[in-house]
Design goal:
The chain is an all-beta fold. It contains no helices and eleven strands. It has strands at residues 4-7, 10-13, 18-24, 30-36, 43-48, 54-56, 64-69, 74-79, 88-95, 109-110, 114-119. The mean pLDDT is 96.
């Protein structure tokens, strides 16, 4: 029922930056970012609660920032100092609650994903 659309992916050199956007068709309590590389499990990157709380996976701390624009029902993921190991499909997710933010199973809605490729 809630549609999510990611944008902003692309190819950058190591050390570069990208800003991903996730636009939702309606208001959601929490939005998160996950990533999945070939042959690897889906990894939690960041999440933003309806109260403005932000949470980050270990790989994102100190480099990525999640923010939201409630008026636009949009979440952003600003990524700095990108590394080759950040290469993955980045997926936006949304849930009606604000619990289990690191767990993919807690999210009801998922976007198609946007590819991020970081070259060395």
């Amino acid at each position: 029922q809630v549609l999510l659309r990611e944008s902003g992916g692309g190819s950058v050199q190591a050390g570069g930056s990208l800003r991903l956007s996730c636009a939702a068709s309606g208001r959601i309590a929490a939005m998160g970012w996950f990533r999945q590389a070939p042959g690897k499990e889906r990894e939690f990157v960041a999440a933003l609660t309806s109260s403005g709380g932000s949470y980050y996976g270990d790989s994102a701390k100190g480099r990525f920032t999640i923010a939201g624009d409630n008026a636009k029902n949009t979440a952003y993921l600003q990524m700095h100092n990108l590394k080759p190991e950040d290469t993955a499909v980045y997926l936006c997710a949304a849930q009606w609650s604000n619990s289990g933010l690191t767990l993919p199973s807690r999210y009801e809605y998922w976007g198609q994903g946007t590819q991020v490729t970081v070259s060395s």
